[in-house]
Amino acid sequence: MSARVKNPDGYQFTVRPLSAEEGGGYLVEYPDIPGCMSDGETVEEAIANGREALRDCLAVLRESGRKVPKPGIEPAQWRQRLPRTLYSKLTRQAEREGVSINSYVTAIIAEAIGARGTNQGHRR
Fold this sequence. Notes:
Blueprint: E1 3-5, E2 13-17, E3 26-29, E4 37-40, H1 43-63, H2 84-97, H3 101-121
Antiparallel strand pairs: 1-2, 2-3, 3-4
Helix pairs in contact: 2-3
């Protein structure tokens, strides 16, 4: 099962783990842009690669004069208050990963949702 996540550009994307047969890592796909996908060893890397793929796909559509699809789902925003110690830990980890705290937390949530969906699929 994949997790649907908001992209800063407004396009939703899904993140799912790839099986060992598929090469491992994670796959990011943009349902609003057919064929737009990328992967990475970590969720964070897959999302970063996916954003690059999205920019490339949108550029190709514009350059070829084709219509650029609008995002199918309006972006949403929510706010969460965190203890300062947790915020500090998240900030340091995001810096180590070389991403913004928003991207880092989005990746954590996507990974958790994807893992839960995968695990739930195996329960009987």
